[in-house]
Amino acid sequence: MYTRTNPTSDKFTARPDKYPQGFFKDKPCKICGNNFSPLAPSHLHCSDVCSTRGQSENYLQRCYNIGVSDYEAMLEDQNHCCKLCNGEGFVMAKHHSMKLVVDHCHITGAVRGLLCHNCNRALGLMQDSTQTLRAAIDYLEGATTIP
User: Fold this and answer.
1) Are both 13 and 42 inside the same structural domain?
2) Domain range for residue 60?
3) Residue 16 within a domain
């Protein structure tokens, strides 16, 4: 969903014969709860879909103190568009799958909404300063083109 950093399950290299019992016991998936046969002791999810969702959940919780369901609710509220420019955004890197990023206040940590990468960068470059942003608006409105 948000980011994918671990290899897909077809890339697991653990061999059951390395372990005393000779196999890995079935266990419930950390996301959906379905029992599955793990391919390695560290295999926590039944599918790549659940693995990606689990990684996204961990990332969003660690960085922004929200879950995937919170992210999805914001996405729905914003009609899958950037809160500033109403654009659909774009995928920044191949290990990302979402087009919009979480915007937050660097002082309080409060999440403000979902933005495209460009709008999020613009706010950061303007240091979240309303005074600087107003000056930029004044500049754009008063700018003339030199003939």
Assistant:
1) yes
2) 1-64
3) yes
CATH number, domain containing residue 120: 3.40.1800.10
Does residue 108 fall inside a structural domain?
A: yes
Number of compact structural domains in the chain: 2
What separation in angstroms does the CA of 114 have from each of 3, 49, 54, 85, 123?
15, 22, 20, 11, 12
Gap between the Cα atoms of 92 and 3, Å rounded: 11
What are phi and psi for residue 59, nearest 5 degrees?
-65, -50
What does the pLDDT look like over 46-84, one tens digit per residue?
Answer: 998 998 899 999 999 999 999 999 999 999 999 999 999
Q: Tokens standing for 56?
A: 């996204």
Could you tell me which residues are beta bridge partners of residue 104?
111
**Is 0.90 surpassed by the pTM of this model?**
no
Q: What DSSP string runs through the chain?
A: --B--SPPGGG----GGGSTTSS---EE-TTT--EE--SSTT---SSHHHHHHHHHHHHHHHHHS--HHHHHHHHHHTTTS-TTT-------STTB--S-EEEE-TTT--EEEEE-HHHHHHHHHTTT-HHHHHHHHHHHHH-----
